[in-house]
Amino acid sequence: MKKSLTFWIKTIGLGVVIIIVIGFGIPITHVAPKHAQVYVDDLSKQYYAPPCLSALTEDATTTKELLSEYRLITRADAFELKYSPNEDCVNAGAFTQDESLTMILFRVIRIYPEQSRWNADGTWNW
To answer: What's residue 58's pLDDT?
Structure first.
């Protein structure tokens, strides 16, 4: 009876380890929510993620000047206006957040804290 119990504990433990390891290799991509704030350029009819615009400038003064040229609206509003995301921002992954299936599982069982790029009010964390 003791050998049988030990066998099952080892088998289940090995199965859990295998699932966790495989889960790290399964990426899940989250897209920016519709309420996320974006900057729009009405001339080019494109929208930008705030971190993407900040990366275009070298100092805070230039960033402020650059941001003053754009309007801040939600991503849903940009869709309504039929604006497209800036290609450089898309290629840089500015509108997505990747995480593994294992990290989602860890978050669900409260082993890993939730880290989203977007806050409930639409602002960006990074």
So the answer is: 61
Let me know if residue 44 belongs to a domain: yes
In terms of Cα–Cα distance, which of 91, 6, 85 is closest to 49? 85
Q: Tell me if 71 sits within 8 A of 49, measured CB to CB.
A: no
Determine, yes or no, domain membership for 114: no
Polymer length in residues for the chain? 126
Beta bridge partners, 100, equal: 27
Distance between CA atoms of 74 and 87, rounded to whole angstroms? Answer: 18
SS (H, E, C) 60-124: HHHHHHHHHCCEEEEHHHHHHCCCEECHHHHHCCCCEEEEEHHHHHHHHCCCCCCCCCECCCCCE
With respect to residue 115, please indicate whether it lies within any of the assigned structural domains: no
Residue segments in the chain with a per-residue pLDDT below the cut of 70: 1, 55-68
pTM: 0.71
Half-sphere exposure of residue 74: CA atoms within 13 angstroms, side-chain side: 12
Kindly state the tokens that stand for 60.
């805070």
